Amino acid sequence: MTAVVESRVGRGWMAAYALAMVGVAAGWFGPIQILLPEQAARLAGDDGKEALLALVTAWGAGASMVANPLWGALSDRLRARRPIFVAGTVIGVAGLLVLSSAETSSTMVAGWILVQVGLNGPLAALAALIGDRAPESQRGTVGALFGVAQIIGVILGTAVAVAAGDQTIGYIAVAIAVPALGAALLIIDRESPVLERRRGRLRRPGGQFVWAWLIRFLLNLVNALVLVYLLYYLSDQVGVDDAAGWVLILTVVNVLFAGIFGFVGGLLSDRWERRRIFAAAGAVVLAAGTTLMALAPAVPVVIVASVLVGVGWGAYIAVDMAILTQVLPDAETRATLLGVANVAGTLPQMLAPVLAAPIVTVLGGYRVLYLVTAAIALVALALLPRLRAIR
C-alpha cells in the first residue's frame, strides 16, 4: 500500500478503499453517537453522565491529536502503509472490546483512548494512500471518497449501535465491522516495500502546506461551530418543541447534501482539473448558510440553511484531500504531514465548545455565534489565493 503509480486506480480499488474508510468511521461514531453516552448514563447516572462523557471524550480527543502524526511518522519511517493499517485496526478493535465490558469510568477512559489511538493508524494509512496510489488526475475523486465514506461511516456506526439494542453487543458488532470492511483493501492492494521519491515536484511544506492546513482548520471549525450548540439553538432561539428530533432531521439533510456534493464535486474537480473553485464555493455557501441561521431563526429558514451548510461542506471535502496531497513535498514525508493535517480536523472539535460558550452566554447569543462562524468561512476564502500551486 505505498508506491506512487501513475496509472489510474480502478473502480474495485476505489470501492475497497471507500469500504475501509467507512469501517474506520463506523468504529469512531458508533460509540460516540450512541454507545458511549448510554454507557456514561449507566455508570454515572443522570447527575454525572455529562461529566463522565466529557472526561472520556476529552481524553480520547487528546490521544487522537497525538496518535495520528505519530502513526504517520512511523508509516514513513517503515516506508509502508499496510503494517500501520493492520496494527492500528487491531489496537482499535481491542479498545472496542475493552469498552464492551467496561464497568468503571477508568476502564471507559482506557478503552476509548485505545480506540482513538488505534483507529488513527488506518486513518493515517488511508490518507497517505491517496497520494501513494491515485495520480493527480484522480485525487479529487479518491479524496472525495475519503470524505464521503466518513459520512457514510457515521450513519452505519450509529445504525449498528441502535440495531444492536444492547451496549455490549453494540460494541462487539462495531468491533467486527471495522476489520471486516477493511479486509477488501488489504486483499486488493499490493504493497511494494519502498516509497517512490518525488522531491522537487511540489512546494515546501512550510509554505503551501501551512496555508492548506490553516484553511482546513478554519473550515472544520465552521462545521464544528454549526453543530456544537445546534440542539440548544433549536430549542432556545428557534423555539421548536422537539429539538432532538429536529437535530436528527437537520443532520440527515446535512449529511445527504454533503455526501452528494462531495462525491460529484470530486469527480468534476478531476474532470475540470480545478480545486480552488470548489473550496471557494464551499466557503461562500457555508458563510451563506450560517448567516441565515444568525438572521432568521425560523424552522423553514433553518432547513434551507442546513441544505446550504451540507452543500458547502460537500464542496470543500470534494477537494480537501486532493489539495493537501498536492502541496506535500515528497512521498517520504507524506504520511507524517498528512497526520499533522488531520490535527486540523480534530482540533476544531475541541475548540468549538470553548469558543462558542462565551459568545452564546455573554457576547450576544446565537446570532453573534453564527455571524462569527460565517466570518471564519470568509477568512478561509480570503486565504485560498495563497495556494499558488493549486489551480
Automatic annotation (TrEMBL):
Any Pfam family hit: MFS_1
Subcellular localization, as worded in the UniProt entry: Cell membrane
PROSITE patterns, A to Z: MFS
First-listed, main subcellular location of the protein, grouped into a coarse class: membrane
Entry GO MF terms: transmembrane transporter activity
Keyword annotations from UniProtKB, A to Z: Membrane, Transmembrane, Transmembrane helix
Record's bilayer topology term: Multi-pass membrane protein
Transmembrane segments: 12-31, 51-71, 83-102, 108-130, 142-163, 169-188, 209-232, 244-265, 277-296, 302-323, 335-356, 368-387
InterPro entries xref list: MFS, MFS_dom, MFS_trans_sf
Domain Major facilitator superfamily (MFS) profile: 1-192, 208-391
Gene Ontology CC terms, in alphabetical order: plasma membrane
Protein name listed in UniProt: MFS transporter
Protein species of origin: Actinoplanes utahensis
Lineage: Bacteria, Bacillati, Actinomycetota, Actinomycetes, Micromonosporales
